[in-house]
């Protein structure tokens, strides 16, 4: 298997080249087929790789070639596939295949069909590179590459200036995080002399825990993670990224790319476990993001925006899990989240497809009968994300919450509150969309239809995965074996990360589960009463809202705050630099060099009056000067 | 005759040089202050003569006839110069009806 | 001895008059007088040949040429536009500066030994002729070419040109 591992990223790359070059030549069916099949082939190899690792329990390490040889620094182009990256491979290629299939239906009427598939394939290539690299530099290539693809795909309909702006926003916000990652790599190369995981993790173990250099490195890495995984303070790009086509939102901005930050921290667990300060910061930021995004999601009316904030919130959950030391739990949530969030996004896409592009939930309602498959699958996804057993979200969320309880009681309280909010806004979405009466125009109502098979099949597959996905991590207290934890044990084999939850008494654990399920169900009932029984519909723009709702609806004015705190001063500074330093200073100096001869020659020109008398006068003065010098007047002065 | 020349003998060389310098400077001042081309020309002649005088004095002082030969050459040159110079002035006058040197400001082009 | 200073005073006086006279014709006449005093200086130095040449060539030929031109151009009136005082002042200052510079260097040289005529026959035609035709033969011949070319040039320049419209200017 080791020999063919390089094929996994190369197959999508081939797809990118073929689709990119042939985007205007090949028929749409061929493009869709190539793009989907190549990713599917990569999925096949990934399964084989996964099963091999599952059997042997050994990581696969393949060096393709020496890449950078600069003095003592040697960076090989090598792949490392261990338990962690094997799971990521499965998610990326598996969910990727489904979303490619879905895109073939969703984008069938779009002019940029070929371009879209080329970008999508390129994204898969970079994402695979990110998770397969055996050192931070290759991870960084993938990291930058997925950022680029994200930019290209958010701005896919670039003729709309708002979409283009959203793409730029995502790119710039990501750049801020990327800078942190890059600096972290520099520090690591400087300190450890290498960027390879094996070398660094081996050397770290010889250091004291809490050593400041480790803290610096991990903080910088975390800055990179906040950018890519949309955490406070760099989260505002993700909701705007919904400007891209819905399959992009599902693949990049829900299932894979945004989890790159979690993957990176999970991969670097050896470093992070040596930096307790950073771990605390990660936990706080994750918790804050989870709560904050959930609060915003409560009042959003755009179906994709709700899902976007939900994604930010769930990512916050994952970081919370990492921060409290539940690496397995956090990563478990990545897996389940990939299933149900991709499902929800694709479902939303299907709804939007049915609604002829309208994304406002206030115009929907009563779609249950019209799009039954979409409705059923989305309901499954919603139950999964709300954390109601036995669907997948329950297990992963519960594991994180249990670890949080172990870590700190009040953080657990906030976590549960967030879980309740999550349950509420997700059921609000479902009830507003599928229940009640249709609130859109007649034209839309007439047009309502279920999506084609290429779109519903991925929905069904993902729905099944959302239902049963949690079974890979059933905790002991429920009679399971937590297969995932055993599988990942070699990766998270770290004395400081031992599972404290298992020490909790079973009764406590049952109580925690009961509490989180209880609040989720409570929120579900409240949403039912409010949106189905009382037929409440969110108010239109311009109508009165309560203060809190206004704050939430306007995203707590975070964008405006950033605008005021960062953009305005930067603009002022730039203007100052432009107008004063550049225009007057630098340009002034350069122009002065030009105008000085011009101006002085304007003055000197007057000497050339053509007046002979004047010339003679000047000549006499010159003669006097020469005489004075040569006849020894200098000697007089010396005397 | 012998006695007549002895008058000169007690004149210091310095005074001759002084005289020449004064005459030369007067010539320069004439060139600078006058606008009539012919007067300027005459001032130049004055300067030439001041130099001639000095050459002759040095010739006597050093007992070297070369100095006086030089004066001879200067005179020949002055004659040629005056001939050409005056011809130019005549030409200028024909073209501009003036010998004011301030009118001759076409040199800047 | 005092005769030298008297003649020197006259030289300077006439020279000043040359450049201050309003009428160009007066200037020429004063210049002739100046040259005459210089001729006397030559005689005092027993430079007989130079004295005679100066008398004949300068006073006789060159100055007459000046007078001719002045009269030819009918410039004997005070037609000269007056230069502004500032220019005159600047000119005088410039000349005085030159004089001061020359004086300064003269002071530096500080040779105040008297001029002694060692050889009575130094400035005689006989002696100078020998030098001129022995050591300075080539320059002498070249100066003849100079005079010839100056003559040709002068004639060419002063010749009346025929204008394109046939009018003689």
From TrEMBL, chain A:
GO cellular component terms listed in the entry, alphabetical order: endomembrane system; membrane
Annotated NADH:quinone oxidoreductase/Mrp antiporter transmembrane domain residues: 135-422
Parts of the chain that traverse the membrane: 6-22, 29-50, 84-104, 116-134, 140-158, 179-197, 209-227, 248-266, 281-299, 306-328, 334-352, 373-391, 411-435, 456-478, 510-529, 612-631
GO terms, molecular function: NADH dehydrogenase (ubiquinone) activity; NADH dehydrogenase activity; quinone binding
UniProt membrane topology term: Multi-pass membrane protein
GO biological process: ATP synthesis coupled electron transport; electron transport coupled proton transport
Keyword Mitochondrion: no
Name of the protein: NADH-quinone oxidoreductase subunit L
Gene: nuoL
UniProtKB/TrEMBL annotation, chain B:
BP GO annotations: ATP synthesis coupled electron transport
Known EC number: 7.1.1.-
Keyword match Oxidoreductase: yes
Domain of life from the UniProt record: Bacteria
Membrane spanning stretches: 13-32, 39-61, 67-93
Subcellular location(s) of the protein: Cell membrane; Membrane
Known role: NDH-1 shuttles electrons from NADH, via FMN and iron-sulfur (Fe-S) centers, to quinones in the respiratory chain. The immediate electron acceptor for the enzyme in this species is believed to be ubiquinone. Couples the redox reaction to proton translocation (for every two electrons transferred, four hydrogen ions are translocated across the cytoplasmic membrane), and thus conserves the redox energy in a proton gradient.
Name of this protein: NADH-quinone oxidoreductase subunit K
Protein's organism: Mucilaginibacter myungsuensis
Gene: nuoK
TrEMBL record, chain C:
Name of protein: NADH-quinone oxidoreductase subunit J
The UniProt record lists the keyword Transcription: no
MF (Gene Ontology): NADH dehydrogenase (ubiquinone) activity; quinone binding
Function: NDH-1 shuttles electrons from NADH, via FMN and iron-sulfur (Fe-S) centers, to quinones in the respiratory chain. Couples the redox reaction to proton translocation (for every two electrons transferred, four hydrogen ions are translocated across the cytoplasmic membrane), and thus conserves the redox energy in a proton gradient.
Entry keywords, A to Z: Cell membrane, Membrane, NAD, Quinone, Transmembrane, Transmembrane helix
InterPro entries according to UniProt: NADH_UbQ/plastoQ_OxRdtase_su6, Nuo/plastoQ_OxRdtase_6_NuoJ
EC id: 7.1.1.-
Gene3D superfamilies membership: NADH-ubiquinone/plastoquinone oxidoreductase chain 6, subunit NuoJ
Similarity field: Belongs to the complex I subunit 6 family.
Subcellular location(s) of the protein: Cell membrane
A Gene Ontology cellular-component term: plasma membrane
Sequence intervals crossing the membrane: 6-21, 28-45, 51-73, 85-106, 136-158
Annotated catalysed reactions: a quinone + NADH + 5 H(+)(in) = a quinol + NAD(+) + 4 H(+)(out)
Keyword Cell membrane found: yes
Enzyme class (EC, first level): translocase
Topology within the bilayer: Multi-pass membrane protein
